[in-house]
Amino acid sequence: MDILTRNCVKIIGNGKQPIMFAHGFGCNQNMWRFITPAFQEKFQIILFDYVGAGNSDIHAYTTEKYKTLQGYAQDVLDIIEALHLQQLIFVGHSISSMIGMLASIERPDVFKKMVMIGPSPCYLNDSMYQGGFEKSDIAELLDMMEMNFAGWASYMAPIVMNAPEQPKLSQDLEQMFVSVNPRIAREFAEVTFFSDCRADLAKTSIPTLIMQCSEDSIVPIEVGQYLHEHLANSTLCLMEAKGHYPHISHPKESIQHMLEFLGEGC
């Protein structure tokens, strides 16, 4: 199977420095549309859809492979190998931050820097950790997805976008949600919200920017602080932006923090 077709890989930009943008749960590569123009002149931009999302080959999806984050990390590694990428800058949104980290642990030799937007190593609360959700919260979310997928998308989009002054952004996100196969979306949600990557944080020391929004219904500020404390060589950026999608709702601020972290010449 052709990897680039499987994951609908697109390469744009005039530069030589490769930068890969990885979308989060329920989305596709179109979520980077407000970000990529700022990188096109100096970077080689790699965009893709995880199997089951966007214009990927849905026939390549198997529950067996994608029942853990490692299956998604393998997609990233497959693309890296197919394109012979080196010194890669990886930008991951939400759960893709952990997917990218797992891929970098597998192949630290090809990763140069990482940018994590709204990342979380674990979404569930326990006695020593505040992830933001109880198991019952996740169970209700999964049940809602199963019983009324369109209703779930309509309910969730404005909450997680948190940009009431820009209603079209929530509408676009809702459309992105409902474009995903409901069974695959629910399985990805289950993998996402029950994942726990806390033990993996000590396995990487790649320079990492953690972009934490000031009010995020998915990721509490404590999670960003936890990541910063447990990720060696990390920088924590507390953004003015609210919501879980700052690269969509606040692209200028997002771009500014990313470029500052990457520096001149990257």
What is the H level of CATH, i.e. the homologous superfamily of the domain at 3-121 and 198-262?
Alpha/Beta hydrolase fold, catalytic domain
State the major sheet. 7 strands, mixed
Q: Which CATH architecture of the domain at 3-121 and 198-262 is right? A: 3-Layer(aba) Sandwich
- CATH fold-level name of the domain at 3-121 and 198-262: Rossmann fold
Which segments are poorly predicted (pLDDT under 50) over 5 or more consecutive residues?
none
Q: Structural class of the helix and strand makeup? A: alpha/beta
Helicity, as a percent range: 40-55%
Overall pLDDT, averaged?
96
Please report the total strand number as a whole number: 7
Q: Report strand %.
A: 5-15%
Distance between the termini: 33 Å
Rounded Rg: 17 Å
Oligomer: single chain
Level-1 CATH class name of the domain at 3-121 and 198-262: Alpha Beta
Care to describe what's here?
It is a single chain. Strands 1-3-2-4-5-6-7 form a 7-stranded mixed beta sheet, with helices on both faces. Helix 8 (221-230) links the parallel strand 6 and strand 7 (234-238). It has a domain at 3-121 and 198-262: Alpha/Beta hydrolase fold, catalytic domain (Rossmann fold), CATH 3.40.50.1820. The longest helix is centred in the first third of the chain and has 15 residues, at 69-83. It is built from 10 helices and 7 strands. The chain is α/β, with parallel strands linked by helices and 266 residues long. The radius of gyration is 17 Å and the shape is globular.
